[in-house]
Write a structure and sequence with these properties.
- The strands form 2 sheets. Strands 1-2-9-4-7-10 form a 6-stranded mixed sheet, with helices on one face. The chain has a 4-stranded antiparallel sheet with strand order 3-8-5-6, with no helix packed on it.
- The chain has 299 residues and is an alpha+beta fold.
- The chain is built from 11 helices and 10 strands.
- The two termini are 24 Å apart.
- It is globular.
């Protein structure tokens, strides 16, 4: 499909819904600026597809599972499927990127094929959560070249572009596997990451209700302190700050698409105090709720 700004459509369970499943060719090319997202951060999410993210300008932190990576312009990251990840700017300057999100079946073909059993599935099940891509690494030059070939073929869609994209993405996987070594074992998801996903799902489902840390802890069978520790270590934030961000995102959607009075929008998104809502909304977006609604209506 032609290159587009990433829409980041996220389901209630924080799994990103890529527009790939009903496509004849499950691959998308995107470009954008991380500053376009609220708080200059792509929020925590995961998806069943592989992702290759290349930073063109600026400086970012990419957090995947329990590890944080600082990326400079010209560097990138390969993110494995089903791994919780987020990206945030480390500078006020533009943080522009281009990326590809693609279903592993593009490379593996039919389930049970040699490509599936020998290469794709072992990497899905036990490959590294992420791999930083550095242009100065000699073995990675081929990765960068293959990515550019795949990205522009997917963007421009010349005749038989699918063959070009499949071949280029296959070359990337081959080079990464040759570097990381043969992967044959399987491992269960890390417990803390799975619990974090559960907490995010719970917060996203209950953001309109009064919040207590104890209620969150009971929902995921963690202690309150462990809930806080997991958020701090994996997301570098607190459950309360995550919840505030989620409420602001919900308010942005209502203001853009509904004609509810602002005070009702606040109440629907879990804010019991209208002035506090307006203050937090402006701090997060740079606009008052009314200014943001007016801006959306002019688009």
């Amino acid at each position: 499909m032609p290159v587009a700004k990433c829409p980041l459509k996220i389901e209630d369970n924080r799994m990103e819904r890529q527009p790939l499943r009903d496509s004849l060719f499950a691959c998308c090319a995107y470009h954008g600026d991380v500053h376009d997202y609220i708080g200059a951060q792509i929020p925590p999410h995961w998806h069943h597809e592989w992702e290759i993210f290349m930073l063109d300008e600026g400086e970012i932190e990419a957090a995947v599972s329990e590890t944080q990576f600082s990326l400079q312009a010209g560097q990138g990251i390969f993110i494995n499927a089903d791994k919780l990840h987020r990206i945030r700017c480390l500078t006020e300057k533009p943080c522009r990127y281009h990326s590809m999100v693609f279903d592993p079946s593009i490379i593996s073909g039919a389930v049970g094929s040699a490509f599936d059993i020998k290469y794709t599935r072992p990497f899905l099940e036990n490959g590294p959560p992420a791999l930083v891509l550095l242009p100065e690494e000699p073995w990675q030059k081929g990765v960068f070249d293959a990515f550019e070939e795949a990205f522009y073929a997917c963007s421009d869609e010349p005749y038989a572009f699918e063959f070009t994209v499949r071949h280029a993405l296959s070359q990337i996987l081959i080079r990464i596997q040759q570097h990381t070594g043969e992967i044959v074992a399987t491992r269960p998801p890390a417990l803390r990451e799975e619990r974090l996903k559960q907490m995010i799902v719970w917060l996203d489902s209950h953001y309109m209700q009064p919040f207590t840390l104890r209620a969150l802890a009971q929902a995921v069978h963690f202690s309150p302190r462990e809930c806080e520790r997991t958020f701090e270590q994996l997301l570098h934030t607190t459950p309360q700050k995550y919840l505030l961000r989620r409420r602001i995102l919900a308010a942005m959607s209502l203001l853009a698409h509904q004609n509810l009075p602002v005070i009702e929008v606040a109440a629907c998104c879990g804010f019991s105090n209208h002035s506090y809502f307006s203050k937090q909304f402006r701090a997060a977006t740079g606009y008052t709720p009314r200014e943001y609604r007016s801006k959306c209506q002019k688009v």
